[in-house]
Amino acid sequence: MRFWLILCLCLITAVAHGEEEPVLAPVKPINELAALPALIPALRIEDSLFFCGEEVPLHNQEVRERLEKELLLTLWDRAQVILWIKRSGRYMPVIEKTLREEGLPDDLKYLPVIESALLAHIGSSKGATGFWQFIKGTGRQFGLTINRDKDDRRNIFSSTKAASIYLKELYEMFGSWSLAGAAYNYGEDRLRKAMEAQEVNDYYLLHLPLETQRYLFRIIAAKMVLSDPGRYGFHVQEDDLYPPVEFDKVTVTNSIQTPLQLVAKSAFTYYKRIRDLNPELRSQFLSKGEHTLAIPKGSSDEFQARYTQLVTEWEEENRIRIYTVKKGDNLSLIADRFDVSLDSLMRWNNVNSRGIIYPGRELIVYQ
């Protein structure tokens, strides 16, 4: 019956558009559609449910309703869940290993799933960036480098280490992983004030901003689906997952700012590959100093010799002048002064059109 209804709708649409012969879109077999689990049974939780070893109080009807809402919203966006599952193959080994080394519960690995969907470059309207969605101040507080050349919030290794230290501190403050999770989202000071004002020390009973009230339930819903995807209709095989990224590590030391393209050439690869392996890099150039970089697996042999030669040749072909910004300067005036394009000057110094330059800053100008 369903098939004939779809066929009739396709025929009506074709006639309305004046087509002589209707072209039918592929129709999913009914047995494939029927294979998707019904949503009502998916909500039935018969066993006890835990987050980081702490039991979720499902006997509280309001708590159960909040969890069911987030589980339904998660299951509705099936494309997003599939991407979660596939990306987990790439990043979960790193996250799990770091949590294990820091002595933290494995369930915390679901935080970056709902924070960033396991995407390096995603950002929020509040300025949070990266896998664990650190804002600049908190990221720097826990050892992340964040400047115009580098943003460690986008590095899965550095950001996971920083998040582990932060979460450990939050647990020591509040003595509960549910409250630690709420503090990660809301801020420890604001959470503490809410607890004092309401005289409540239980996350599930606190009145908090809607985002924070939903936060832990979104994490738990992600845990339920990702830890048992088959139950919810996601029948994934191991080779469906994106594999972990393999790479070699190299260290380069630059006496001046140097094009990142030289790293790509030295590693027998292309520029995009280097940027993908090092998402924390924010510029086409490596600044003066020492840098540890990921390059394609197997390309580290003789890398240093190739890189040194390419850098030497590049320096000979490109004369560099360092200009110190003076009061009253702007990018256009400086570009005109040295007869270079404004776009080139901004690119050389990793400055955008809205960038503000202050007196005393050193700018690189290639002659």
Key attributes of the depicted protein:
367 residues, mainly alpha, Lysozyme, two-stranded antiparallel ribbon, 16 helices, 9% strand, elongated
Could you characterize the architecture of this molecule?
This protein has 367 residues and is mainly alpha-helical. It has 4 domains: 2-35, no CATH class; 58-240, Lysozyme, CATH 1.10.530.10; 247-318, no CATH class; 319-367, Membrane-bound Lytic Murein Transglycosylase D, Chain A (Roll). Helices cover 48% and strands 9% of the residues. The chain has 16 helices and 8 strands. The chain has helices at residues 2-16, 30-34, 39-42, 61-76, 78-101, 111-116, 136-141, 156-174, 177-186, 188-198, 210-227, 261-266, 271-277, 303-317, 331-337, 342-348; strands at 50-51, 54-55, 247-254, 258-259, 285-286, 289-296, 320-324, 362-366. A two-stranded antiparallel ribbon has the order 1-2. Strands 3-6 form a two-stranded antiparallel sheet. Strand 1 (50-51) and strand 2 form a beta hairpin. The longest helix has 24 residues, at 78-101. The protein starts with a helix and ends with a strand. Mean pLDDT is 88; it is low at 11-34.
